[in-house]
Design brief:
The longest helix is centred in the first third of the chain and has 14 residues. 1% of the residues are buried. The chain is elongated, with a radius of gyration of 14 Å. The model has no long low-confidence stretch (mean pLDDT 89). Strand 1 and strand 2 form a beta hairpin. A two-stranded antiparallel ribbon has the order 1-2. By secondary structure, it is of the alpha+beta class.
């Protein structure tokens, strides 16, 4: 869920939002997901989400995410 929030906010900031992409005929589908847990988040932790788009190749692109304690 948190990665989805970060991705939608990234698209809002850098591509005019998800709907703007759809209006151009571009669908951004999630085809694969992988997560490596280093340390668990605890109840009431304040977290920061970071997302960036990497590996842009034609119609394919990949996101990298990081969730860190504030």
């Amino acid at each position: 869920m948190w990665f989805e929030v970060a991705r939608v906010e990234y698209l809002r900031a850098y591509a005019g939002g998800y709907q703007a992409l759809r209006d151009l005929g571009i669908e951004a589908l999630v085809l694969e997901s992988f997560c490596r847990y280093v340390v668990p988040a605890r109840f009431d932790d304040e977290l920061r989400l970071h997302a960036r788009c990497v590996g842009l190749r034609g119609a394919r692109f990949r996101y990298e995410y990081a969730i860190v304690r504030a």
